[in-house]
């Protein structure tokens, strides 16, 4: 083997080494950029989610009292007796609330309960007051308080709501699991 051949082999080896180093460097830089971008996207998504949750909470804090005012005539302590005619008016008020900001930002479970109460109030035409109206009112109160993180032990003592409460708590646990992903 001559010097020229040795030099050519060295050049080939050097070129291969340079190409290998360049490929590894490119892979490392690309991996780092991909990792940094993915991390930034997750942090950005978490910030957006947190911001949205705060805004949603603020709107709920403004809209839920309006719903409570609509529920006032259903209270057993209401100074005015609940009649089918008054219940028809409540049904319309609930419908307006559902198609306003309140219905837009309410938790799906709370919204579902309001729809059920709206329908129960609208369906009562005569006779004795349906028991479901009071039960749904209590469930809505619990659900609204839960949406605003204001649930107290007293709220869970109503025996007719136990199944609703269990279902709601399961939903909350699922949401909390999703929130842990962003921590």
Provide a concise account of the structure shown.
With 183 residues, this protein is mainly α. Helices cover 78% and strands 0% of the residues. The protein has helices spanning 3-71, 84-98, 101-105, 108-123, 131-147, 162-181.
How would you characterize this protein structure?
It is a single chain. This protein is an all-alpha fold. It has a domain at 54-181. It is 78% helix and 0% strand. The protein contains 6 helices and no strands. Helix 1 packs antiparallel against helix 2, helix 1 (3-71) packs across helix 5 (131-147) and helix 4 packs antiparallel against helix 5 (131-147). The protein starts with a helix and ends with a helix. The model has no long low-confidence stretch (mean pLDDT 82).
**What is the CA–CA distance across the termini?**
65 Å
Main beta-sheet strand count, sense and barrel state: none
Low-confidence stretches: none
Radius of gyration: 31 Å
* SSE series: HHHHHH
Note the overall shape: rod-shaped
Q: DSSP helix count?
A: 6
Total strands: 0
> What does the average pLDDT come to?
82
Strand content: under 5%
Structural class: mainly alpha
Helix percent reads: over 70%
